[in-house]
Amino acid sequence: MISLELIFLPAILLLGIITSYQDFKFGKIKNKWIILALSYFIIVYALGIFFYTFYGELNVEYIIELSTNILFAIFIGFGLWYLKVWTAGDGKLFIAYSVLIPLSVYSLGYQKYIPCSVLLINIFILAFMVLFFSMVFKIKFKNLKKVSLNSLKESFELKQVLFLIINLFAIFWVIGILLSLVNLNNPLLKISLTMLIFLSIPKKYKNKSIYFLSGFVILRLIIDKSVYSWTFLINFIVLIFLGLFIRSFLLKGVNQLGQEIFSKEISVNKLKPGMILSEVIIKKDKKELKSLQKNKDTKIIKYKEHCYIQQPKSLLNFEGFIDEESEGLTKEQINLIKKIGIKTIKISQTIPFALFMFAGVLLTFIIKGNFLSFLKGIF
Most exposed of 46, 282, 316, 320 (fewest Cβ within 10 Å)? Predict the structure, then answer.
């Protein structure tokens, strides 16, 4: 019997080569390749399920894990698109790879029910390594020092820490209950979903969410007796530091360093549809002008009864006046920027992420699983 790896490998290679070329050459991933990949997956598994149902023994556990893996891939694919980590095309491509890769490929560092999390880790490790070494050779020490100090200072602001504690205490508990109901007690899944939901809360709703989540905090303190233990306290402190590290250093600090290297300032007249801003435009009332003028780095543009400020974009600060999609600017948004009176603006120099994704897939196939587990085995 031919293994699933040999059945799906040609389709994966074909998908990877075509989408990587198109993303590099044209900056787009066509839906037809995603549809063909998903169709191939459906046909192969439909035939396999039919055959083993009538002429063999169907592995129900494999089908269950395959199903949960697909649901997790969909959640991550569209979740990271919502957070504007990648484009909708990248999200759909990740889903396609996740369904095409047989579960046996994830043998090293296997995560039950969510094995494609291994693929996600490998992809971002490769992307981070390339971007990190690019930054090392290009970054200026004064910029590194400035960003590090700002990130460290923000990490321990009392308001930010309290907000994080309330969110993690409530969300992590609710996620744990929901996962236990469907028998998905996976620590990595709980942490991933908690962080994704925490980061997905829109900035304008954060103050309101505190009141809502405080109810769950009180409820947990009453119901969950495990919180009154040293084990819980140690684990929760680790979770808090992980949240602070992801929020302030990875999502904001590294993002700011990246903007210093992978962005350039151009005239607004040279903006074209599809370009991605590395700055966010925030609308404020003129009565707030005095407080804004205290910050020397803030660009302020006055238009009618409002003023508009330009700030570096990050996952923690992407809700601006221009509701830009991850696919880039539209003609209407460009006209609106010009109308406000902005003269220059910074745009991101995009990197075709499909290349990183394909490289992550090949790495996963070669080492049969998690790259971190592979390194741990060597050393």
Answer: 46
Positive or negative torsion for Cα 302, 308, 310, 311 = positive
Nearest residue to 255 via CA among 164, 354, 346, 147: 147
Does an H or E element contain 198, and which?
Answer: helix 187-200
- 87 with 160, same domain: the answer is no
Same domain, 202 and 144: yes
User: Tell me, what amino acid is at 177?
Assistant: I
81 & 157 share domain:
no
Residues 6+ apart with CB under 8 A from 75: 193, 196
Q: Which domain holds residue 253?
A: 139-261
| Same-domain check for residues 127 and 81 | yes
N- to C-terminal Cα separation, the chain: 36
pLDDT, one tens digit for every residue, the chain (379 residues): 568 899 999 999 999 999 999 988 887 889 999 999 999 999 999 999 988 888 878 889 999 999 999 999 999 998 888 777 788 889 999 999 999 999 999 999 888 889 999 999 999 899 888 877 776 666 665 555 665 566 666 666 777 788 888 888 998 898 888 888 877 777 777 887 887 787 777 666 666 777 788 888 999 999 998 899 999 899 888 888 877 777 666 656 555 655 666 677 888 888 888 787 777 777 776 665 555 555 555 677 776 667 777 776 655 555 566 766 666 788 888 888 888 878 888 887 767 889 999 999 999 999 999 988 888 777 6
